[in-house]
Automatic annotation (TrEMBL):
This is Cystine transport system ATP-binding protein. One of its GO terms (cellular component) is plasma membrane. GO terms for molecular function: ABC-type amino acid transporter activity; ATP binding; ATP hydrolysis activity. InterPro entries: AAA+_ATPase, ABC_ATPase_HisP-typ, ABC_transporter-like_ATP-bd, ABC_transporter-like_CS, MetN_ABC_transporter-like, P-loop_NTPase. Residues 2-242 form the ABC transporter domain. It is found in: Cell inner membrane. It comes from Kosakonia oryziphila.
């Protein structure tokens, strides 16, 4: 289980996340929706500690970290938490000079200290899972966007993180290419992968999510099932936002 309690994040005094409280059950998918600039990416980055909140508490499974404005967070505490997470970015962010397989094995070998053979087996297993084993020796620039994103998902999953964080994983893709990425994400959801995903794609959000969270101006306006938010929003702002996208 993942919990965020009273998370606050500011940039130069500008409060970007305001008193965020959120619980994510293991094996469920949470989607974050909201206007550009509402804080979706910052929220994801505060879970893998690419950004450090000023205050609040984050728990991922057995790992807990408390943020206070005056205390510096130690590198080892950041690593302890960030290793529980895998991240998929809008623009894939593959290492351009490495093959699909090497993109996956690199972190296993250098960060997680796996031996090469074990990393190769894990890399091939994951490439197979995302339907990309036939491209194991291909460089990213020879792959379509959808193929690159599938490799990026495999890379993020390689060390078996407790949670997969996805920041607009289909936004850079044409509809046809986004379909193949959605299919992979849906399969992962069915298998019980814990995921938190920011998306503009309401259909994806509705299809895949156990919980949908609507953020606006750094606040959680409303959260609930896809049915609750998309059909029976309690807050007018939620309904307006959903109407503006559909
Ligand atoms: P979203 O992903 O919902 O579009 P973001 O989390 O990217 O929103 O941004 C939320 C707000 O935080 C925006 O106003 C953005 O300009 C600001 N912001 C995000 N990252 C930084 C940063 N590194 N420095 C300063 N402001 C930032
Ligand atoms: Mg964003």
């Amino acid at each position: 289980m993942i919990t965020l309690s009273r998370i606050e994040k500011s940039f130069d005094g500008n409060r970007v996340l305001k008193n965020i409280n959120l619980t994510i059950e293991e094996g469920t998918v949470t989607t974050l929706i909201g206007p550009s600039g509402s804080g979706k990416s910052t929220l994801l980055r505060c879970i893998n500690l690419l950004e450090i909140p000023q205050s609040g508490e984050l728990t991922i499974g057995k790992e807990r970290i408390t943020f206070t404005p005056d205390a510096r967070i130690k590198g080892q505490d950041i690593r302890r938490i960030s290793r529980q997470t895998g991240m998929v970015f809008q623009n894939f962010a593959l290492f351009p000079h490495m093959t699909a397989l090497d993109n996956i094995t690199e972190g296993l070998i250098t960060v997680h200290k796996w031996d090469r053979e074990r990393a190769r087996r894990r890399g091939e297993e994951l490439l197979n899972k995302v339907g990309m084993l036939h491209k194991r020796d291909a460089l990213p620039n020879t792959l379509s966007g959808g193929q690159q994103q599938r490799v990026a998902i495999a890379r993020a999953l390689a060390p078996s993180p407790a949670v997969l964080l996805c920041d607009e994983p289909t936004s850079a893709l044409d509809p046809e290419l986004s379909g193949e990425v959605v299919a992979v994400l849906r399969q992962l959801a069915l298998e019980g992968t814990t995921m938190i995903m920011a998306t503009h794609d309401l259909r994806l959000a509705a299809n895949i999510a156990s919980q949908v969270v609507f953020l606006e101006a750094g606040e959680i306006v409303e959260s609930g099932s896809a049915n609750d938010l998309f059909l029976h929003a309690k807050k007018p702002r939620t309904a307006e936002f959903i109407a503006s996208l559909s």
